[in-house]
Amino acid sequence: MSKAAIVAAARRWIGTPYQHQCSTFGAGTDCLGLIRGVWRELYGAEPFAVPPYTPDWAEETGVETLLNAARACLTEIPVAQAKPGDVLLFRMEPRACVKHAAIKSAERRMIHAYWGRSVVETSLIPYWQRRCAFAFSFPKKDSDL
Asked: In this structure, which long-range contacts are made by residues 105-108, counting pairs with CB atoms below 8 Å and at least 24 apart in sequence?
């Protein structure tokens, strides 16, 4: 899958309202739902069902659920090597679990579901750069090989 196709798919979600635990184009999504929606558009069925989760799931469990799921489905790369079309994961506090996801859309831009608003394309400002803990590439499809 080309990285340009991934960015284009993510950009189509811009304006989709923020809705916790949703992944419905145009109706509602959260940050994970955006990644899931792009996956479905470009790859088909999701690799596994996402169990219900509360807004404070990471704080309550202390389990790296989002990071572990990314490692199971995507290809981990160094953050410094992330390119447009790659997935970025963020720790909101230094020792906290990964809690937010975005798709890098340009050198210093990202597309993400912004809590309380919608899917937006924003600058990857120092606030986000400091919190970016992991980066992943979507897998190549057989047709890409």
From this structure: 105/7, 105/10, 105/11, 106/7
